[in-house]
Amino acid sequence: MEIVLSGIRSTGNLHLGNYFGALKNFVEMQHENKCYFFIADYHSLTTHPTPHDLHGSVKQVFIEYLACGLDPDVATLYRQSDVPETAELYLLLNMNAYLGELERCTSFKEKIKQQQNNINAGLLTYPVLMAADILIHKSHKVPVGKDQEQHLEMTRNFANRFNRLYKVDYFPEPAAYNFGKDLVKIPGLDGTGKMGKTEGNGIFLIDSAEDIRKKVMRAVTDSGPVHPNQEMPEAITNLFTIMNAVSSADTVQFFLDKYNQCEIRYGDMKKQLAEDIIEFTSPFREKILDLSKNDAYLRKVVNEGAQKARESAAKTIKEVREIIGFKNL
Ligand code: AMP
Of 26, 99, 209, 253, which residue is the least packed, with the fewest Cβ within 10 Å? Predict the structure, then answer.
């Protein structure tokens, strides 16, 4: 069985884009692979050294991932900071990571422009910590977006370098996990681009029915088609893309026919879309609210996750120490 590892950011609520672009796939793949999902709270300090409420944010992320269907009995769900073995591997990998390659990293170059008065060593060595996260479980596959491909390439370099330097065949070469054709991009409701947390155009799983109705009714549209089968502008295509994700095929076809016959009433389409989104998200919202009240269960899940992750990590660190030469006297 392949070992798959995925990092999760430590703040922010999940929106429909996150669900269809990531979570839905995670929930499916946890049954076919040995999966580790971790919340990257160490990493968050590279950009937010004094977080307002690290504990609260991490708890909320944990809750929302559980609500989406990550099953702690099937996969290992843990906080990065609960596995200090990761920090030790990071230290050891840092000894063989070179300044030049770290400085050339695209994300480092972008980050130092964004935070010119906090160019810390953690930013520079971000890819080493990511490599430690991946290699600590000797992972084979990592689901990554385009922006993370360079980091994964660096992880392969660090893994191969370790194997070469210490003349072992120890770390596997992690590859990108490809979701293939199932990967959908959910657009925003503002007529352009994708739904995202920084774009301020998200419909969140935790949103109330009232909020969802308001957001959808405000979605950008136009004055409607004037010729049958007229090409669709981006804003309208976006509405159909979201509808495709949450509504029945019949509903989508109904509005598509109306569009093609120049009879579409966007107000009706938005009302239907809002109700279908509400129907889709409300089970998630209910689970999120239920879990939020169940601290005892959450504590159990977090502790068990940490224990499982540490078992795997401790084995790797023990072996790595022996390979390098840190042996018991
Ligand atoms: P982010 O919220 O940007 O940290 O993204 C977390 C994960 O959700 C990544 O794997 C993204 O590929 C995925 N994701 C974020 N926004 C969207 C979107 N609008 N459509 C599809 N996937 C998305």
Answer: 99
